[in-house]
Amino acid sequence: MNPNGSMDTFFNPRGVAVVGASTKNLGHHVVLNLVNGFQGGIYPINSNYNEIEGLTCYAAVTEIDGPVDLAIVIVPAGAVPGVLEACAAKGILHVIIESAGFSETGPEGIALQARCDTIARAAGMRLWGPNCMGLVDLPNQRFFTFMHPAIRREGLLPGRISLIVQSGMMSAIFLAELGRRGIGVAKACSIGNRTDVDECDILEYLLQDEQTDVVALYLESMPRGRRFARMARQAAKPIVLLNGGQSRAGATAAMSHTYSLAGNARLLNSVLVQAGVTMAEGIFQMMDMAHTLSMIPHMNPAGRTAILTLSGGAGILMCDALEINGIPIADLSEETRRKVGEIFPPWMPVANPIDLFPAVARNGRRVAFQGAFSGALADPGVDALVIHFVAGLEADMPDFQDLQARARKDGKVLMFWLMGRREGSRTFRDKARAAGIPVHDDALRIGQCLRAVARYQAHRQSAPGADTPPAQITAAPSLPIHQPGIWDEYDSKMLLATHHIPVVTEFLTDSSAEAAILARRIGYPVVLKGLAPGEAHKSERGLVRLNIGAPHDLDRAYTELRDKVGDRGRVLIQQQVTGDYELIAGFLRDPQFGPCVMFGLGGILAELEPDVVFELAPLDNQAAVQLIRAIRNRRLLTGFRGKPPLDEVAMADLLVRLGDIGTRCPSISQIDINPLLITKGTPVAVDATVIMEGA
Amino acid sequence: MNPNGSMDTFFNPRGVAVVGASTKNLGHHVVLNLVNGFQGGIYPINSNYNEIEGLTCYAAVTEIDGPVDLAIVIVPAGAVPGVLEACAAKGILHVIIESAGFSETGPEGIALQARCDTIARAAGMRLWGPNCMGLVDLPNQRFFTFMHPAIRREGLLPGRISLIVQSGMMSAIFLAELGRRGIGVAKACSIGNRTDVDECDILEYLLQDEQTDVVALYLESMPRGRRFARMARQAAKPIVLLNGGQSRAGATAAMSHTYSLAGNARLLNSVLVQAGVTMAEGIFQMMDMAHTLSMIPHMNPAGRTAILTLSGGAGILMCDALEINGIPIADLSEETRRKVGEIFPPWMPVANPIDLFPAVARNGRRVAFQGAFSGALADPGVDALVIHFVAGLEADMPDFQDLQARARKDGKVLMFWLMGRREGSRTFRDKARAAGIPVHDDALRIGQCLRAVARYQAHRQSAPGADTPPAQITAAPSLPIHQPGIWDEYDSKMLLATHHIPVVTEFLTDSSAEAAILARRIGYPVVLKGLAPGEAHKSERGLVRLNIGAPHDLDRAYTELRDKVGDRGRVLIQQQVTGDYELIAGFLRDPQFGPCVMFGLGGILAELEPDVVFELAPLDNQAAVQLIRAIRNRRLLTGFRGKPPLDEVAMADLLVRLGDIGTRCPSISQIDINPLLITKGTPVAVDATVIMEGA
């Protein structure tokens, strides 16, 4: 593939050849779309015509007599390889294949796509598509696409959000829906089958694009997830992702818990959230979050919000919507309450939400609103103001430019929760947005958007300056043994212990008498386990005896387990550890994201409602600490119910080592530490499984 | 209060007096609203006018010379008691007080409202309000409200959903927003301060109202929650509730876990869900759920859904939206796949979602759609069809009446996911709805609405015929002791054991020697606990010694605990039980819902993310079984990870007994069984706390 710098030619070609140009259907659409806006040369290619839309039509790209560096191909799939060869001969090294009929149609299409790929690689050509709708650049009025030219009548607005969309028809739908919602777009890129150019190539380009402030994506898979995550972490612009297909049945039955917890979307979500990506749920949430992020470049990540309303009920519903989304309701200062209180009747103590109704009745709308607004802006404990407004009930609209200027001066964020008549609402919305103030009609959406802004700001403040992988990775670690497949618990923990991960005290034992000696050394009560080759479910198979308190119980347990595991098995005696709670840690190689470390809660309830997070491995100490703090139930780790807080330094060290072991030894496919018991804040691996390739 | 039958006069009065009628402001609005639609007598009352809007104006209600049985009062608050006395003198026994300035304004207002109440009670008068917007009846064009007459221009539609709204301004906002969304309304009732008429009175009326199919409510509290829940359980119509204020800081620090788990909204939510109420999150979800429930009277509760779309991406997003909401994606039968497959190209196996694009390319839109539609309708494994549609891209609209007739014949439910141009969408939506087919533009909303329908249908099928409280409640149970306040664990479990709730084997002990004898009888390992009067946090205070395996450990533990608890304390020796998992059960008296039983998961993670459900006590066996199955993580109880399933009969029996004990003994304010350990499926109370009134 060519260096990525050449991506610019797709967006800014000197001339464009339209291979498959026509006077009807899609081939006509492409020409019409180019004629309506593109300033460079346009060269229709079709041997059946002399001209199309007043442009000279050529029989082949090789006959073009002007500067041309991009071809849009819309001929039947079978003819595409010939077209690519002609393009290569002409020196056209950027091609958007918009035709369908490739890998999406089965084996023959896959072979056809591979042929295209081979031709392109040999020529040093970049391929965009196939099976895509191409690209649209609204500020520059470039429509390199077969979308119906009527799409321009859908109210499309130039703006500063760029889109990358995997699914073909969705890209047209997204454009139309954004127009309907009055949201402006910079570039919209439909990427189709991604035989060469993919979301990473385009993301890299858009992150440098001066017309793009936010990148929003719709993807159903992310084959170069690792690259995507690394780019996102370094990005200086917000990235919003709608990941379709989260719910589908995930990978087939997996052997380790770490692997099954990764699921179809959990790992992707977790890694990308760590990298600062805003994950959206649903099309409209994606659009509204992207739009809000484009309008709010800065906010204190605390996001403490004051609410101004004329309706007590609306204030209550807004509180609910904010708290569901983890946005705190600001505590107004004594000073603010005193100052704002001057416009309220004496029986009405000022609180947040600020219910303006009694103040309006006393002082009129202007005085009441301005008093409350100024008071909330001046309060150092307020980061954002949400103003509830009913359009159409009052004739006069706020002076948005003035409100926004005052809010910006104080470093505060404004948002409107707008209800009321449709016509009035539209004008209100457009004027407010022109001043950079987001407007939504749904309280929950305001909560979701404020959460997106708060998280993105927190990410910006915490992101390290550079993405330097830990330097200490030099040689593969020495493995105590070398067999492929599932290692038993003893061998697995030996590998961990060799690399300074704390494990429970344990010994293999060959006789009941020896077990008794070891038990005295470990101290009763002890645990006895039978290790059978390849057996991953000891408890379910009755191979675990907990709470052995005396020698005669030990003797009986030894005899039984020895019988069960047989000659090829082993018996393990172990200190019985009672932790304050159970965690789980792991390592795996993900097909999209490569080596990753997992961390989360253990125990039976965590199996029912997993609370695990993932990060690319290797990871440094800072990333490990962030990972630890990223679980949903982080409260458990900070001294919950009088238990000592987790030793974060020890835990982070364990995760860094786990990532190093896995990364440095390519034959390790998975490591599972489950449970990782926490006693007085200190982690110890009580059971573990290593899975080596070649099983 | 009068019998509820008299509620009808509020909605169907022969004549209405408007006390505070005027030619301007709110007093004018009320008259204008009446003139525009009400067919009965209208009597403006204001001594300053001779006539208003062409109607004779009276100085007082007592002077009215026609039949009048309802007064709408909009005079200043201080004048209201006098008005009520005049109404009583005239025999007007139904009064809507729309004036503000009562209990919502502080102590003086509370006193004023109490005076009104006293006058009304003495006269046998029903009061609606004060501080409310009255009522609107759209099918009959009755506006008994001071809302601005321009509200009629907001596109209000008569329909079959009735509203009960606690907050004043929200009722006007709801009406306008429903109009904007093209959703029809029957009656809208703004209930204000509820000094007499409350949501229960109106709900009872609307459940009998022939013009109402669904009742939707916005409430911020539910003082007669118990009555509401009982009515909801018996209701033959869907009830949708948006409960504002869920997020607020709940009750102050509570002494028992059961009480704190009840929280502000968890108990309300749980009890009402058990009673078949649809709980909405946010205003628009409430509206859309109510509307969908009004259009879909029947569905198989399994809700297995087939998806028809022209966009693969849309199909994927719809799957996500359905699965998030627990709606299963239908498995198409072999027969369906074969039949529908005939219209598809051979390389495209038919699956659900049915992506019609390749079939359209092959056979045209009509054949493709009709083939897939017929196939899905005929499939016995399909209960609902969601059809994705882009308005404006095709000229011809579906024949909604025909689609709906065919779907109904096969007992299937149809919904449209509609995207596209605004104008086209509006026509499409209105036509589809006229045929009884719900249309939404948000995939997630379709998932939420289908879930609401599926749950309501499941409730209808499971609801018992009559709400008969268990008959065995006769006498208060005998209490082993009679002190008020917090009982210690031993006394608490003695109460439970007396009433046949299984508790762990345990004895009080007065000496180390006795403890040793008891330990031999119980069997090592044992647990020793120090019981100090009023101490609810034994573990945190170091008063619990687990896992005592030998006599010398027992001796040391006894000495230490005896020292700690002192003369007034007691020492308890207990069998050490290791369960498969921990549950929790409890009883409490809720201020809104009265005696309730709680059931849920125990353990530390369940404290972080509570999974508990509540039901009114006493409860019968069937309700107890439903309660057990209502927890989020019900999978844990059915044989998770090879553990034996919970003995539902024993568990239900325990909950019934718990409810009986609490209900029959009014001095019990709370009972907490925590943990309730489950061993081989059988529950046993390991620790418990009883709290008696008078603490």
TrEMBL record, chains A, B:
Alphabetical list of PROSITE patterns matching this protein: ATP_GRASP (PS50975)
Domain of life of the source: Bacteria
Alphabetical keyword list: ATP-binding, Ligase, Nucleotide-binding
Keyword Ligase included in the entry's annotation: yes
InterPro entries named in the record: ATP-grasp, ATP_grasp_subdomain_1, CoA-bd, NAD(P)-bd_dom_sf, Succ_CoA_lig_flav_dom, Succinyl-CoA_synth-like
Keyword field contains Nucleotide-binding: yes
Pfam families: ATP-grasp_5 (PF13549), CoA_binding_2 (PF13380), Succ_CoA_lig (PF13607)
Every ATP-grasp domain range: 493-693
Molecular function per GO: ATP binding; ligase activity; metal ion binding
Name this protein carries in UniProt: Acetate--CoA ligase family protein
Source organism of the structure: Desulfatitalea alkaliphila
Lineage of origin: Bacteria, Pseudomonadati, Thermodesulfobacteriota, Desulfobacteria, Desulfobacterales
